[in-house]
Amino acid sequence: MGDAEVEVIGRAMGFVDDADVPSLLELVHPEIEWRPPAQGTLDDVYVGHDGVRRLFAQLTEAWDSIEHRPIEVIDGDRETIIVTNLRLHAQASGLNVDEVWGYAVEVRDGKMFRVAMYTDAETAIRAHGADSLPRRPWPL
Known about the structure:
Number of domains: 1
Strand content: 35-45%
């Protein structure tokens, strides 16, 4: 993976933060598999554009703000690991989340094809065999 893939992922994160699902879907492969963290109330996997729409409907129902602040990138052969500071604010409870998460993303044909989200960046790195790969700061 390289800079073109990182650019796609960065743009997608911006659309997630803006709750702009139509623009996000332009960067999502029609056969995407999107896996949210295992520790939650979401489905195990969301498939295709309809699945992504359903995922983000559930997320925006629970959180009134989502903000990614990417920290670093780990380039693998098939996927890129993004380490990001994720900030969430819950509508109903007022709960704030401020944690460092990991996203493993495979980009195919300029679109996100697989996404796996982890509530702990180091778990994402280990799960995707990226322990020994070089890390680089998020592009400015």
